[in-house]
Amino acid sequence: VDEGTKQSMIQFMDKVSPGSDQGWSLSTDPCADQWKGVECESQSVKRIVLEELNLSGTLDASPLCRVQSLAVLSLKGNNVAGGIPKEIANCKHLTHLYLGGNRFSGQLPDALSRLNNLKRLDVSDNNFSGPLPNLARISGMITFFAQNNNFTGELPQFDFANLEHFNVSDNNFTGQIPDGGGRFQENSFLGNLGLCGSPLPNSCPAPQPAKKKQKDVSLDKIFIYLGYVILGLIVVLFLVYKIARRSKKKEDGFDGGKNRRSDTSSSKANGALSEPKTSENRSEYSITSVESGMTTSSLVVLSDAPALRDLKFEDLLRAPAEQLGRGKHGSLYKVVLSNGLALAVKRIKDLGIPSEDFKGRMRKMDRAKHPHVLPPVAFYCSKQEKLLVYEYKPNGSLFNLLHGMQNAQIFDWGSRLSVAATVAEALAFMHSELREDGIAHGNLKTTNILLDKDMDPCISEYGLMVVKTQDYSQIPEIRSSAASPHDAFKDDVYGLGLILLELLTGKMVQNNGYDLAKWVHSVVREEWTGEVFDGVLISEGADEERMVRLLQVGLQCINPSPAERPSSRQAAALISSIKDEEERSVSSDS
Ligand SMILES: Nc1ncnc2c1ncn2[C@@H]1O[C@H](COP(=O)(O)OP(=O)(O)OP(=O)(O)O)[C@@H](O)[C@H]1O
């Protein structure tokens, strides 16, 4: 074991066991001389197990996590006090963390949820308090013990299907036990007066409508007021516009006697929608009215969610709006409804297909559903205007995660591989569902991969772009000009390939990916493949062989000839096998 690692281990020991070094000394070797509690494999420190030794110091994660190979840490049954420092996130290879039966206190740091390889976490019988971090991000966790602490707040949505052991009894948790918790005995939840729902005998009260928080004047509020002002201006402009065009509208028979709808119809000028009259007939907002072809311009709600079922066009109008982006395909607004629900509304520019085709497209897409593809919850379509409404995802996009300054450090190889596999699988599913209808994504890129509350990826804006064959001719080296109608699917595979390269290199895609593709090709050709990878991945010790295999999949996907690219299904299978191998290797390591 190298000197640096030895020094780090001794630093950790100084803190955790002040006054006794337990025989750990720089003049000996942790593996060869079998330091107390240390177990090694291939001359690397894998496990540190210091149980019931009356240790009374604190846990210093900074030196500890410099022991890169560490997979297991157990300090069970001591008197270690203080908190778990956020630097614990640097113990990337940790699979087992046992801290039960100590005097730890404070909140569990969010950093814990970044230990993607963690399988077993035991923080029971301590004095921890505050809410739990979102440990559901750790998909492979099989044990979670947190009983006998002072935790508060609601339980996060654990992946109960995967968990084998779970106990949060004797804390101060409140609220409903998340779905799936019923898999465990009530003993796992007892002793929390505020908890309710299965498997506990007390059921939860019916949900109250969300109350508005009055307290803090935050940046959000400023945006909301700004939104109101802008919206007001837009409505005034629109009214002027409408009066000017009033007589013409009548001629159009836009809202003639044949449509029973009282009116959610509208048009839009300068991004504003008119103030429509109210309607009492809920079905006019449902897909059925589109299917019957009776409406040309009402809001069609596709979602069954209770908060959205009665969504009307005027609700979107009245709500404060904040522009999130203006791409070449249209603008995107964040709209917050009066019930607090946040939506993302895409105003599509020049879609290039007639309204009826657009509605047909929406209907088809509504039938293909995948948990990692964001479905539109509603749409609006008139001659002048096409809007698509999505749930607003507050955790940002894959682009932000990769290129946002703070996050780059913590987006490790295991998580990147898992994102790649999920996106590829979701894309392959959508392709197989919508191939016959010829509906591909059309604009697959990292800004269109959103992250949900568990930081799982979700493809957004599927099917929004109607890809025309002439688009391919822009970059002859990359997109064949002789594109067949099905090339839109191979175009998505190209997009997937670029996402893989972005994940592996950490570099941004510009100029339709041409620059990145060219650079990767040249480095690989010079046989400096290792130089391609993001420095963060190299320093974390990610497996280079598997990174190279993923790189090869990426390069196949961006083959200049669409016919030579794999199908999305083939790409997904290749990525999934790399991910399986990674998981096998991590669990055999531990
Ligand atoms: N449903 C959503 N919830 C939260 N953020 C979103 C949502 N949809 C998109 N975004 C984010 O809003 C920003 C603007 O999105 P927009 O679609 O306008 O831009 P784009 O994807 O870069 O360009 P385009 O799709 O027009 O090519 C992007 O950073 C995107 O990640």
From TrEMBL:
The UniProt regions of compositional bias labelled Basic and acidic residues, in chain numbering, are: 250-263
Task: State the compartments where it is located.
Answer: Membrane
Task: Please give one Gene Ontology molecular function term for this protein.
Answer: ATP binding
Give the UniProt entry's GO cellular component terms: membrane
Q: Which residues are in the Protein kinase domain?
A: 318-578
* Positions contributing to ATP binding: K346
Q: One Pfam family, short name please? A: LRRNT_2
Which Gene3D superfamilies does this chain map to?
A: Phosphorylase Kinase, domain 1, Ribonuclease Inhibitor, Transferase(Phosphotransferase) domain 1
Q: Which UniProt keywords apply?
A: ATP-binding, Kinase, Leucine-rich repeat, Membrane, Nucleotide-binding, Receptor, Repeat, Signal, Transferase, Transmembrane, Transmembrane helix
Regions crossing the membrane: 222-241
Stretches the record annotates as Disordered: 250-287
Keyword hit for Transferase: yes
Q: Does the keyword Ribonucleoprotein apply?
A: no
| Protein name in the entry | Probable inactive receptor kinase At2g26730
